Amino acid sequence: MARLQTSSIPLTPPIHRVCEPLGPEWDEIAATILAPCTSMGTAEAGQAALRDLRQEDGATLYALIDGGALVAAYALRKNGLALEIAWLVVAPDQRRRGFGRTCLHDALRRAGKRPLVAEADDDSLPFYRGVGFKLVGKRRAPNGSTRFRLSWHSPRPGAVEASRT
Predict the structure, then answer these.
(1) Which of 71, 90, 155, 163 has its CA 20 to 30 A from that of 20?
(2) Residue 90 domain-assigned?
(3) Cα distance between residue 49 and residue 81, in whole Å
(4) Is residue 50 part of a domain?
């Protein structure tokens, strides 16, 4: 009997690290990583975005620290019954080392049985799809670019068991 594959994300992350809450003492560094990776442009705009997220009800910031340095960060916010990845950034000199994937594993663990959703552009779409997110929609952004809506759902134990019988 064939086993049902519920996701392309392995149960155990390749890097055994847990992200920790991002304290305000990291905001200046996080803003310098965040600004060039998004449309924010400047570190000041990145710091303003971090301040806004900290004040938002249901939003939490997390950091991945490696060797005392901030290498990646992400933000989760409640969006109805789901958790949404507001943003995920990896320091440019730390990319392609598994830190982004580790952050997603951490977010999936925190989401539990709730769906985890994200929005991606053309550049980040392959990353999210490569770790198991499914495309659920797309839209045009005000600047004319395409934005993709992605989701990862934790399998319901009852549904997996029923499909095996």
Answers:
(1) 155
(2) yes
(3) 24
(4) yes
Q: Domain containing 150 — which CATH number?
A: 3.40.630.30
* 14 class by beta-carbon count within 10 Å (0-12 exposed, 13-18 middle, 19+ buried): exposed
The owner of tokens 């939003």 is 59
Q: For residues 61 and 39, which has the higher predicted lDDT (pLDDT)?
A: 61
Residue of 81, 74, 78, 130 whose CA lies nearest to 107: 74
Please give the model's pTM, rounded to 2 decimal places: 0.75
Q: Which amino acid is at 143?
A: N
CA atoms within 13 A on the CB side of 124: 23
Structural domain span for residue 157: 20-164
Total domains in the chain come to 1
